[in-house]
Amino acid sequence: MKRFVIEREIPGASDLTPQQLAEIAQTSNSAVESLGVPYTWVNSYVAGDKIYCVHEAEDAETILEHARRGGFPANRVTEVANEFGPQTATAVV
Predict the structure, then answer these.
(1) Cβ atoms of residues 27 and 41 within 8 Å
(2) CB-neighbour burial class of residue 53 (10 A; exposed 0-12, middle 13-18, buried 19+)
(3) Nearest 5°: phi and psi at 67?
(4) pTM of structure
(5) Strand runs (DSSP E) across the chain, as ranges?
(6) Cβ partners under 8 Å of residue 68, min gap 6
(7) What's the pLDDT tens digit per position in 25-50?
(8) N vs C: which end of the chain shows fewer Cβ within 10 Å?
């Protein structure tokens, strides 16, 4: 599966309560189950008026279908080209 970063513009996102985030997670999980194809929600990050999500799917169209079924905005969907972190500094090239 490919990995995607999804940018969701949600005014007041940083003010969402733990209960509201739990409800959003439940809705997202239900949307994932309804897709009937391989799909993984990896994690999400709330920052200001946006939520950034990392999901894995075969294509961007499936990401958009998940958003539609869940009633979520998907203002930008970008396929991840590569990943790296602190451990990359010591990787043998």
Answers:
(1) no
(2) buried
(3) -60, -45
(4) 0.91
(5) 2-9, 40-47, 50-57, 76-79
(6) none
(7) 999 999 999 999 999 999 999 999 99
(8) C
